[in-house]
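PT: before anyone asks, these are the final sequences, not the draft ones from last week. 560 residues across everything. Please model them as a single complex and drop the result in this thread when it's through.
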Amino acid sequence: MNARLATFALLTAAGLSLMAMVPYLANAYWLALGISLLQYTVLATAWGLFSGPTRYVSLATTAFFGVGAYTVAVLGEALPWPVVLAVAAMLGAALAVLVGLSTLRLSGVYFVIFTFGLAELIRQLVVWFEVNKSHVLGRYVFVPVTQALIYWQLLALAAAVFALGWLIARSRLGFALRIIGEDETVATHCGINTTIAKVTLFVISATVMTLVGAVMAPRWTYIEPSIAFNAMISFQVLIMALLGGAHRLWGPVLGAVPLTLLFELLSANFPNTFTIILGCIFLVIVYLLPRGVVGLIERRRETSVPVQRRLPA
Amino acid sequence: MTAPLPVLAVEGLTRAFGGLVAVNNLALEIGRGEILGLLGPNGSGKTTALNLMSGALRPDAGTIRLMGCDIAGLPPYRIARLGLTRTFQLVRVLDGMDCRENVMAGLVFGRPHLAAVDINARTATLLQRVGLGGQEARLACELTYIDRKRLELARALAPAPDLLLLDEWLAGLNPSELVSGIDLIRSLRDDGITIVLVEHVMRAVRALCDRCVVMSGGRKIAEGVTGSVLADKAVVEAYLGGIAADA
Ligand SMILES: Nc1ncnc2c1ncn2[C@@H]1O[C@H](COP(=O)(O)OP(=O)(O)OP(=O)(O)O)[C@@H](O)[C@H]1O
Ligand SMILES: [Mg+2]
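LR: through. Structure below.
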């Protein structure tokens, strides 16, 4: 077991170093693709971190992403970069606490609608504030962050989100969330404060999403609310996580990578019909792969070898 | 002489659903180590009363004292941490988890002072106790009906509760399972656990309950020592000679 863990750590380290070399080896096009892949991998994994065990479908991804991006647009030039990131993370976390406490008592459908409305509400608030108070429509993002630096930051975030997910799964919180996912009534009668457990996880997931938005902001030199709070991001992340399978930590990445590539291809070649195709893909996934790629792999394994029971720590 | 503090003291407990008063001004007391039978025909409000005590429902009025501490209206997780656990009329186990994790669920979030216990050893003991010894790795969804009930009981016992609420835990068992079930519950009482037993199986009620409270239409209609309560005219009438006579 220890040998396996060591091998795994070694392979991860090797893989990360290899991926860290990309900016030195690749041209601008491939680097941009790498950034997209990492961006969606982190967003989808963060989405699955919360929605996998709780089975809440959130469309708030873009709300947090946008808050991160806008923090950079407003504070990027005024403060040192690490401070900007820290402020963004705190804003995202604070928003998540607020949203979590007020909505996680809602059941399924209402939660979906609320989170969708939330992104729109925040976008409108930002528009109102910018027009009436700041008297600007958009903002230029002038921060000394190169594409390579964006890539490395996203790679660090990816490593962090997987490490976080791994740790949570082995923690009391992770166990509590699995119980909540099985039967919330039983969970509360076992002594679990389900609200705290869910809000904690929501905040962790949202903070990561906010950081992705902040890290990505310098990629656009000009930001306006419709770019930062693009509802498309929420839907894409949702589809990716579902395709991969949100009930496993490594599920969403299996959806994020192929779909990012597909979306790149589609938006380059069919910019007008892109959303229609997106909708069709969504339907196909829900009908054919209700448990995602992960579910497919797990089913394969179960039929070929006897089920390997996972031993919780 | 001061009477010892009852484990549970309920007064004026009331809860309505729309116009239907499911529990109406209920009062009862349970002393330490006692098994109290909570009886009544279908729809008389027994499960609702348990839901109010365990926090699954909020009372409209009344007090519920668990060892002197008012728990009425507290959320279930706080009541569980104070030492009250329960099973459900329709058995609820965590199907996707194995037996060990099912028991751990009751153990690790329950009472703070249990934080130091050896979880594996205690889980094994609890499974043994309910007749599931050595089944740690079995998935809950693979268990038979009676074993699911046993597993649910082990989960409820895990945090060493002061008060255990059993909602028709013996229902649906065959005669030999019933005998072992009755023995099991009696052994829990011998360990000092106080129990509220909601039950239609009169044989079990006679064998286990020291005292009984009988409800009908949300109200308490009789209370006292088991033998005399079951012979009470109002009680027999409430059951329309049905269940009370079959033992
Ligand atoms: N959540 C609820 N909403 C509306 N009505 C309810 C609810 N729960 C219970 N009731 C009603 O309250 C009354 C008492 O129900 P309860 O389940 O407490 O009865 P019971 O004594 O446990 O019956 P049984 O022996 O059949 O389990 C019934 O008329 C029932 O329909
Ligand atoms: Mg009932």
